[in-house]
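Sorry to interrupt, but I need a hand with the structure work. I would like you to pick a protein and set down its sequence and fold. Please put the record directly below this note.
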Amino acid sequence: MKNMNWKKRFFALATIGLSILFAMVSIAAVDTDTRRPPLEIDPDNFVSQVDNPYFPLEPGTTFIYRGETDGAPTRNVTSVTYDTKVILGVTTIVVHDQAFEEGVLVEDTYDWFAQDVDGNVWYFGEDTKELDEDGNVISTEGSWEAGVDGAQPGIIMLADPKKGDRYQQEFLPGVAEDMAQVLGYKKSLCVSYGCFKDVLQIKEWSPLDPGVVEHKYYAEDVGFIYAVMVKGGEEQTELVRIRHR
């Protein structure tokens, strides 16, 4: 569910409750240390639903976003499917994201998420395909799966986000190294879909693309509603519609 095309080391932990420590990592260490012992993921410490208020994933829900990238109109269709995928023994929810530019499908992605008992939402990987205007797959760069080739899951949304929190969203050296920091809460924000209060603001970037920084906004009981690239390009997107089936 990323909108950018480039979303102290980890300690081996005995429980998911302690594993949140890995999320509060030092950015300096993230940039310099790629030798990370594998996380100990206990499937029993995960729940079947993702109901984090700022990242709810109810199967059958589709979010539609519109925006612009360098002046070109864009549309993203993000669907929470009824499908699941077992990764490292954890049953994840499959989310299908399609990105269109000027009406043409340019990226087709399946993301995998699961929530632990404390309410943190984990990101277990993605299968992404970049397409040409004829629908041919021209790249799968950025694809990764936790447990494969040294890839490790990350946190996509904290259970209790607080200003200043920093965490790794994904980890596969040279492929997936997205980072996030909680900037705080905005009193209100209006997008095409509606107006919201107490909107969570998160900064995202990647050591693989240091010239790009994006700010994302999340509304309680809705999830992601707005994003704007603040460094490295002209890009923004906002929620315009939600469908349920």
